[in-house]
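Support case: adenosine-5'-triphosphate complex. Customer-provided input:
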Amino acid sequence: MEIKIEKLSKKFGANHVLKNINLLIEKNKSTIILGKSGCGKSVLLKIIYQLIKNDEGSIFYDKKKIVDIDKFGMLFQYGALFDSLTVAENIAFIDFIDGKKNYKNKVINSLKEVGLSADIYDKYPSEISGGMKKRVALARALFKNPKVIFLDEPTTGLDPINSDMINELIIRIIKKKKMTAVTITHDIQSALKTGDNYFFLNNGVVEDSGKCNLMLKSKNKLMNEFLLGVKKLQNS
Amino acid sequence: MQFIESIGATTLNFIRVIGKIVLFIYLFFRFIFKPKFYFRHNLKYFIEIFISSIPIIALTGIFSGMVLALQSYTGFSRFSAESAIPNIVVLTLTRELGPVLTGLMISARVGSAIAAEIATMRVTEQIDALKTLNTNYFNYLVTPRVLSLTLAMPIFVTIVDFIGVAGGYLVSVYRLGFNENMYLINTIDFISFSDYLSGVIKATVFGFIISIISCYNGLYSKKGAFGVGSATTNAVVISSILILIFNYFLTEVFF
Ligand SMILES: Nc1ncnc2c1ncn2[C@@H]1O[C@H](COP(=O)(O)OP(=O)(O)OP(=O)(O)O)[C@@H](O)[C@H]1O
Ligand SMILES: [Mg+2]
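Agent response - structure generated as follows:
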């Protein structure tokens, strides 16, 4: 699905978080959203998903203003797992709530896909680690096979090996399942690896955008400041 | 001047909250007829609150009945009217103390839990997550709680009535030296079905009040741990006050 955002703005009281956002999420591509902490990335994702209302501006989903959000999936920044349900019930929630029971194999496969063992199948979210929660939440978001997947910092809090595995998984689902992905990340390596296009938010507007493979060559001053740490690391 | 202003502000705020709650009740009746209903989930919730509330219901019943017998003895023995104790115990319990005490206990036990759970879910984005998982979040969260409590309260109050009468019986027979048979006969002779029914209707209304107020406070709580705390307190305080107010007006109706 193609998603086009025009002149979008959002205020929380006096806090004008998004001022004038214009961007295009291309169909079956991986779009990366970058920006400093607190600049409104998570809010933008929730507005696109229609979990929060925007103040002004419009969003076009395949050129239409109306969309069936059942086609979307979302990994929340802090997982948002249901803490009264087990890992399996969380992942297979859409089946569980309909009273279906034959989701066991599907859940075990999902767990494998995000690098988790079937041991945690019957555990509760409070009994697993932060990085595991994040991956269970990712498995839950993918379980419904969405057309568009929104990922809020999928690799934050993971060790390098697991974070690379999640990157591979994101690449695989976009290529194989023909999903459109929108990913927020602070992990530039992951952005370079999994992204097609990027948008850099700053002070409520899109400050810089382009192809991910040209990101490090960006001429934008603020974007360069943002990437400084990563570039230093690469040069050494 | 400031004093009057603050009264005005409080009044306005009060009216605003009432308006929101009325809207919330309207939402409840609109959603309940919308797909999906999640029958199994509703049933599971009902069984859960039912079982977890039985101990405090039993305790409420036995001690209310016992203290009623003891207190009315102190009063009535002064007029040599001890024989009225069985009637006093059973009438006070079924018409008044049963529903009110059960309502207050359940609002503390279940209402607070409902508000805290839903508020926590809101703070940790679990309610947003429900929306992203093709779920009718209102029918998943609010409907089971309102239906379960509204249906469970009449059962709870029936249990309190029975256990309370048993408590009164125990104290009267073993402590105050009543004749066992006379006590039972006096109890059964004096209670009419309409007495029992008035208590049951009160309890049903209280169950609806507790669950609606608790769900409302949870769902519209402020963010953060503070929000969870104040949602819980508000749920218990507001539903307890409403129980006392509605109790008076329902009593007027059944008088
Ligand atoms: N529900 C809300 N009510 C009020 N303010 C909010 C709300 N949600 C977000 N904000 C504010 O909006 C701003 C942007 O928040 P957001 O979570 O989108 O940041 P972010 O870019 O995702 O940051 P991070 O990288 O740290 O996750 C913050 O200043 C935050 O305080
Ligand atoms: Mg964020």
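Residues 1-31 of chain B form one domain.

Case will auto-close in a few days if no follow-up is received.
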